[in-house]
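Suppose a classmate hands you a notebook page containing two proteins, each written out with its sequence and a corresponding row of structure tokens. How would you begin to make sense of it? This section walks through that situation. The first entry is reproduced here exactly as it would appear on such a page.
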Amino acid sequence: MTQGNDAATAHAWAAIGGRDGLAESVTYEGAGPVLAARLPVRELARATVGACSLAASELLALRRGVPLPAVRVREGAVATAFVSERHLRIDGRVPTAFAPLSGFWRTADGWVRTHANYPHHRARLLGALELRDAGDAPATARRLAAELATREAHEVQETVYAAGGLAVAVAPAPRSVGDSPDSSDASDAPNSPDTPGSPGAPGAGTPPLVELLPGGASGPAGTLEPAALPAEGIRVLDLTRVISGPVATRTLALLGADVLRVDSPRLPEQADAHTDTGPGKRSALLDLSAPADREVFEELLATADVVVSGYRPGALDPYGLAPEALFARRPGLIVAQLCAWGWSGPWSTRRGFDSLVQAASGIAAYEAKDGEGEDGEGEDDGTEGGGVPGALPAQALDHGTGYLIAGGILRALTERQHTGEGRLLRYSLAGTASWLLHGVRPAPVEGGPYEPAPWLTETPSAYGPLRHALSPVHYEGAPVTWRHPPTRWGTDLPKWA
């Protein structure tokens, strides 16, 4: 069975600049109650994939001079891809999604959520709390639980933040779920770093789902020739990490783009994360503080069509990567930027991840489980008892934002083909969280039962045999999988294919 004329899809399509009337043509094939939660996660997930698929169809139709290929999204494929990191197998091995010190922890007055998957974040968390690393994960976790139980959540949050670590106080559930944000509902924004105990972020407002901004001077229009894939011939500089940004660029690679991920050699990526989000892309290392590497980057930028960045606002500006600086050097460029907490307000420059945004936005409290830990999110010894904060059934803020980024870039390419104009697109995990809480409505469940097997495949790779999820992005004639598996992180030459 299929469903069309979906309100969430229409909203996502409009948010990425889509033309009126097209979203009604997107249909969905149900798979039962997938991505089940108190919040409408299934509806958000399929809408973001539907909008991205429609953007791909639109660009392909423009390039080939044909009617739009029909867009039909399978909810089973969406559900599988939104937990792609859980389905991944690397030479038979099951990757570890969350480290032992990442999770919910009781405090003297509530709960905090920590993120310590990367070694430097783990070290900063322990250092901020003056804890010695016991060298044994369970023992260190017990010490952390005991220490946090003596402190207040807001004090933990600010102490760890000051040390460059990651911890947030778990906010109460919003009172206005399903409606427009209530300005009196303090839990709709992260805890203010300026007002202890106050969960409102003064002046920050509710982050929009997408910000579409002008892109400076125009370049030539009509430069894209007919092609078999929507993004064929498009050159993408991928300056993203972890999940959301890499999901976006993984999708562009599926659709034909030449995607080159560029990382600093001083900031290693987790191999498992790269394996999940690296198909179809290449990966190179450049130190932008080194003149020789900076020159190589400038050569890449000179012929790039798209730059996608996933760092905190302003973090890349010293390297000449502020949007206005990029547009000045490359007219017609499309720049997509992602951050955790939004592009204004006191939290805009803070580090963040999907799990932390869930905690600070009230999602974790809304999804609370009685006497249980969260599903798949790295439990700890300090979370026993009732009212344990919960988690969404997927890192839906990450994945959903990733498909919105890809869709926005494809739409910007369509517009550039007409006008030659570049575009600045800004996204945040907090904006997607707000949409989930206040803008997405439940939709009838159809189809089923769900089985992930049809949406998984096996591929040889440099890391060994991989079992991984297929992309859920689909239009009539869409590619089924990527042109090549992930290469080893940082081992490709910094040049276009």
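The notebook's second entry, a different protein, reads as follows.
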Amino acid sequence: MTHAVVLGASMGGLLAARALVGSYDRITVVDRDPLTGDGEHRRGVPQGRHFHTILLRGKQALDEMFPGLTADLVAAGAVPVGFTLDARFVLAGHTLARTDTGASDVQTTRPMLEGAVRARVAELPGVRLVPGRDVVGPVVEGDRVTGARVSRDGAEEVLPADLVIDAMGRSGRARSWLASLGLPTPAEDRIDVNMVYASRLVRPAAPFPDRLTLVGPVPGRTTGFAFAAQEHGRWMVTQVGMAGDHPPTDEAGFLAFLKRSAPPDVQDAVAAAEPLTAIRTHRFPASLRRRYERLRRFPRGLLVFGDALCSFNPIYGQGMTVAALEAEALRKCLRDGPDDLAPRFFRAAARIIDPVWRLNALGDLALPEIPGHRSWSTRALNRYVARLQRVATHDPAAATAFIRTIGLLQPPTSILRPDVLARVVLGGPRRP
């Protein structure tokens, strides 16, 4: 019987396990945390106390992998959001026009979303979740990984495997394993953003009209926030500060920091709301991409997945969606056979990551406070996007094109389509 071991049971690991079903008889998913169904935060997901979103394309992918998932989430209390009818987006200082973009999403806390996906994965044939295990390292025979060594309370065991997947997030260890084996390690691309999140859950004193209000950073103010409805009448307040301008965690400082970016109605709602949790922070130093697709030598029987491949600036909410798309790509690679699986998957993943990384970099480098090389094309595109966002304040078609692009429903090049380009150049809808 064939056996695959997935190291890491966060969203990336769970989606990787889903991709393996049907190609391996047994799938073991290992994590150091307890994997309970109580909706509690996990030590291995330190970012889990902050606002999370699955982009529009990611929601489609999840419903394809787990039919009825989002409907079940809504039935359990998750909040459906129509873009931009129920959501206020203020990007580069411009409030996007309210319109029916034909796209919708659901908002939940990270524990609710991950718990629902984990419950679905646990029911899949051949899947076994193994909590409370620390990963020690791979078992290597010749040029092939043949298993993984894990430990519990100091007692080590070997899990023999035909395939081992490093889905341990940004701190994934495959790179160090390659170095210890004397093999080449992947080059890294990096964008230093020096960012800190500060978040808490609240219960508003009165109904708030928008289910999501999101304000992004602008040149000269590298701060922003999200005010988002969550399950059971709770709301998430997440503030972000980039380039070293970080939100404080004391009560007065938290509200004062919010005033720098939030419109008055959000300020008033947060100030009057009942705090449900303490203010928690999470530090994110840099976006990081590891170029495994460029390696000419890589052990058979090993893959790298999710944030271990590319850790995106979380302000754009791209990570879980990209992991879902990588799971789709892995399923296709497995259907095409086991030969050269790693290089084929890494190339497929790179095709998914490339446009998203460029979108990510474009947003970061639009802020002069973020260090990095800005090519002529980057500067030109940022000027174009800034004008598109201005036009999108009063042009529903431009707003729809932008929302569907950042939601990964269509490629970034779609904002350069002739019909969109004409609206941007002319400043709005074309008239006879």
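A careful reader of the second entry would note: The two ends are 68 Å apart (CA to CA).
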